[in-house]
Amino acid sequence: MNIFLTTSPLQLICAIEAKSTYNTINNILIIRDEKSNSGKKQIHELLDKNEWDHVIHLKRSNKIWNTSKIIWALKKINPSLNFENFFLADYFAWRSNVILNNISITNEIIIDDGINTIQTYNYLLSKNNETHRNKFLRDLLMSLIGIKKPRLIYPRDNLSLFTIFELEKSHIKVINNNFLQLKNKLDSHNTYKENEKVGFIGQGLVNSRGMNIDDYLSLIKCVIKKHPNGIIYFPHRSEPLEVQCKIKEIDNVIYHQSKRPLEFEIAKENIKLSAIYGITSAASFTINKIYKDLPVFDIVVPVSMYGMSQLGTSLQSLQQYIALPIADLPDWDSYNQNNTLHFS
After folding, report:
1. Do 6 and 28 contact (CB within 8 A), yes or no?
2. Domain 2-182 classification at class level
3. Contact (CB, 8 A) for 321 and 166
4. What pLDDT is stored for residue 340 in this prediction?
């Protein structure tokens, strides 16, 4: 039997791809409930329960109790708790390592979680790296209900990756995810149309740890200035209401609330675009792999514009892995240099 643990729409897409690529049978999907309505709609569109032998929903609240319920559910399905493959994206997550310490697994396979996949891989390249997610009180409570605490986290010999990214070769086995299942489901050849609007992939942490909202709005206006036909803005599923309201006030912006992950949405809604822009986004990378005729551009944002500089530094360092053409936005370059560009 095989376990797939997913906590986002992208992870679910990658789990579906992995199930096909690895040709697994007797598949158990553990799927964490989404917080936002947008996320819930996307999961609803993606999840076909008939494609899975068992589907277990993981609640977001009360980590100890709900993670324990997952282990008890797995034991009910497979009393031996011996499984062949465990597919997961959040390799360092507390819940992942509690589950893994309470079952027996032959292979552990990391699937994509956006740019976090690259950071995880780089950390695991060193066999000496190890970390843990233990807290005394939480561990004690787990033991009282017969559940082992989270395991020590380090790169095990049975670990491999199934990923969209081109990663450097190492002792960790890497299998490429080419989205064959997704491509078969979608008509991805009729999206590009010259002189149409351009797409803009929204960020999820604006005005929080991400970009300052004023800089973010200025960036969108710079894209519009280059493309007078306007943009279709695709918000991140966790975009705050205050950001949404500000963007809807900008002229020449169509605010498109997606029903599905963007990789599906473009084809399913027959959206025509002349190009699409993103900010070191995993969605930009996946769209570039799926929609071969559609130009996809990466926007460089200075680290100083991020509320948490570590996030900005990480995104800049990850641009080499995304390896998309850098957007040519003269007004944005000017804004970055003197921060005095104004829009009416």
Report:
1. no
2. alpha beta
3. yes
4. 46
> What is the pLDDT at residue 255?
98
Asked whether residue 329 carries a pLDDT value surpassing 60, the answer given is: yes
Which pLDDT value is given to residue 3?
A: 99
More confident residue, 117 or 311: 117
Q: Under a CB-based contact definition with an 8 Å cutoff, are residues 108 and 157 in contact?
A: no
Q: Name the token pair of 227.
A: 């493309």
The confidence score (pLDDT) of residue 133 equals 78
Query: Alpha helices, DSSP H only, in the chain?
Result: 9-21, 37-46, 63-77, 94-101, 116-124, 136-144, 180-185, 213-226, 241-248, 262-268, 282-290, 309-322, 330-338
- 307 CB burial (10 A radius; 0-12, 13-18, 19+): middle
- Give the integer Cα–Cα distance in Å for 334 and 344: 17
CA distance 121 to 160: 10
Query: In the CATH scheme, what architecture does the domain 186-338 have?
Result: 3-Layer(aba) Sandwich (3.40)
**Distance from C-alpha of 275 to C-alpha of 296, rounded to nearest angstrom:** 6
- pLDDT for residue 341: 45
Q: What residues does 32 pair with on adjacent strands? A: 58
For residue 49, is pLDDT > 90? yes
Average confidence (pLDDT) over 50-76: 95
What distance separates the 2 farthest-apart alpha carbons in the chain?
66
Give residue limits of the domains in the chain.
2-182, 186-338
Specify the pLDDT at position 260.
Answer: 86
Sequence-distant (≥ 6) Cβ neighbours of residue 221 within 8 angstroms: 250, 343
